[in-house]
Amino acid sequence: WLGSIVVVTVLFGVVLSAGVPPLNLFIGTGGEGYGVGSIPPGVQVPFGMMRLSPDTSYDNTAVEWNHFGGYHYGDNEIRCFSHTHMVGAGLPDYGNIGVMPVREMNEHTIRDYGYRSKVDHKNEKATAGYYSIELITPNSLAELTVAGTYTGVHKYTFHNDGNANRQNFIIIDPSHTVTKDACVHAEVGYNKSNKEFSGSVLMKGSLTGRNGKGIYVYFVANFSEELVSHGTWNGSHLHPNNNSTNGIQCGAYAEFEKSVSSVALTISISFQSINQAKMNQLSDLPNCWTKPGDQFSNCMAYSQAKWNELLSLVSAEAVDSDELTKFYSALYHVFTVPTTFSEGGHYMGMDNQLHMIPDGSNHYSDLSLWDIHRTQTPLLTLLQPTVSLDIVKSLIRMYKDGGALPRWPIANGDTRHSKFVQNYT
């Protein structure tokens, strides 16, 4: 019993110089039924809008009960890596803008998650600011990090297995969502002049659909290497060299030279517009693009420094090292949510209009209010009082914009069914 005691010291305003403390980010990724964890093990900065993480399945079956956060440790496949996720929720939602490397491109690839890959969790790593896994089907290494609040960075290494027919593709699926059939409309386009993919999705998930209008997620995507070819798909039909498409099951792909061993992909998101996604990327990339050396490594170092800044506010000691890992893993998860929902000094309100916020403050959403009022809420008041105050102000703004205090806000909507909300408006 004594071995489980953790001695904690809170260091207000002090940042320790040591590296990221011991973490196990697979805690909370398993379980069944009411014991399911629903924690995505991917990458983000504290309170980041960008939550880049794998979405999984077992033999192409993803029971929604086990995939509220997109990922379940008991699965044997990764469907794709997507950029928005719920954390510890009780219903599936988000999972926007799927990305996956593949070694061939045909109608089987795009039909019913044909681009998914078998995985072995022995070849999977997750820590603050970095995630990696070997993808068996395309024989590729996937690595993830983030460049800031709105920007995720992928790195795919295509292993040479001696197969001369192997090609190097990366697909972008804007119609992918964690909730089955949640995509109402998706679109994606390729701009040859700036070599940029961009697009959007209107989705109505298990929670985001309750507001009656759904939510829009926008993105811009840039590759580090030159494209050999590109194209789109719609339904089960490929359209080589096509620059744009839209529908409820559509996407785009990029092909790279067989001699290219690795490709980096930078994706920035917005809940406001494609143009704002571009602005978000411009605000995030200086965190790591302006420094010498490998940009992926720079981004990883930046995000890990952000995590160390918060995790080192609390100094803990334990006789049992496993207990220390559990403690810091729980503290890490405290700082993953809520979601920063303000962009460029504005936020999308409950009334579906853009509103300004004061300089230096943030608007937050994805608040599990009834689950956290005795746990995370008072802890944030102690450790992150500025964030805590901004959360309160965000709830007040939601009341003003939507006509009622939200039960559990997600993005710019409430989880009350739309008829119930209309009684207040």
Give Rg in angstroms. 21 Å
Count of discrete alpha- or pi-helical segments spanning 4 or more residues: 8
**Number of distinct beta strands:** 24
The structure class reads alpha+beta
Low-pLDDT residue intervals, each spanning 5 or more residues: 418-425
Q: What is the global morphology?
A: globular
Distance between the termini: 54 Å
Could you estimate the helical fraction of the residues in percent? 10-25%
Mean of all residue-level pLDDT scores: 92
**For the largest beta sheet, what order do the strands appear in spatially?**
6-7-8-9-18-13-12-11-16
Largest sheet: 9 strands, antiparallel
How big a fraction of the residues is strand? 25-35%
